[in-house]
Design goal:
The complex is a heterodimer of chains A (135) and B (130). Chain A is mainly alpha-helical. Chain A has 2 domains: 2-50, no CATH class; 57-132, no CATH class. In chain A, 64% of the residues lie in helices and 4% in strands. Chain A has a two-stranded antiparallel sheet. In chain A, a hairpin with a 5-residue loop joins β1 (27-29) and β2 (35-37). The radius of gyration of chain A is 21 Å and the shape is elongated. Chain A starts with a helix and ends with a helix. Chain B has 130 residues and is mainly alpha-helical. Chain B is globular. Chain B has a domain at 51-128. Chain B has helices spanning 26-29, 39-49, 64-78, 100-109, 123-128; strands at residues 85-86, 89-90. Chain B contains 5 helices and 2 strands, in the order αααββαα. The relative contact order of chain B is 0.10. Helix content of chain B is 35%, strand content 3%. The longest helix of chain B has 15 residues, at 64-78. Chain B has a two-stranded antiparallel ribbon with strand order 1-2. Chains A and B meet through α1, α2, α3 and α6 of A and α2, α3, α4 and α5 of B.
Chain lengths: 135, 130
Amino acid sequence: MAVMTCLMNSCDPECLNNVCHSSENHVITSASGEVSEDGPLFPCILVSRIVVDNRSTVSYYSHQLTCLDQLMVKVNKNITNFNDEVQDIVQQLESHGEEVNHLMVKLFKGYEAVFDKEFVSYICLKKYEYNEGVP
Amino acid sequence: MSNSGSKSPAAPAGATNTTTIYAMSPCQAIPGLYDYTTNAGVKQWAEATKMLDDKLYDGSSKGLAHFLSKLSRRTRDSGWGNITKTKGHNIFHMYGLFSIQDSRDDAELSFQYDAADNHVITRDAQASWQ
């Protein structure tokens, strides 16, 4: 019950209701008919309520990662929001057991879509150093 | 912290020999089942169940990664590692690799009974549903 109590103390009532009133709930029934709340089942249902998951999920996020220049435009060239979005994409892919390769190369493409000349020249320098293997 | 090295200095005469348990996390400091009627058990309960963050999680997709990361850290500190895996995958980081039904099947397995039809109480059962 420790897991469940921790979750009850850490989620707001709306979030708890979202799980408790979903078609899948975190209550399990034993062979003898005893009913109990299961702590670890709760976050699994919570994630399923938040993350839309189907067969195209991995291909969708993989595609997103190859078009980071478009994502930069979508977030109005806000670097912090862009980084958060990329982090989410990477997490989604990793949660499906996908390995994210050459992230830096993909990030450079996104950063180069910013109009700020000073920033772009800084990124070009970083890209050059990356390509030359400068630590 | 005690150190049982071979060259440790002799204890002064009349001193009681106490053993200090060195533990990597609070859950490891208490051997066996938690007894919530003891001071140590109550402390363990309070530590394991306290709020994960300053702010309640609102169930948004933006805060999900942060929430799961905090929960994962609490899992490590509280020794919930065995019950937070489904089909061998960590439920906080690899949630795309199993279904809710898989998690439910695992949860139902944690209900263990002995020959007299009583619950078998384990650390995992204490954390999970007891």
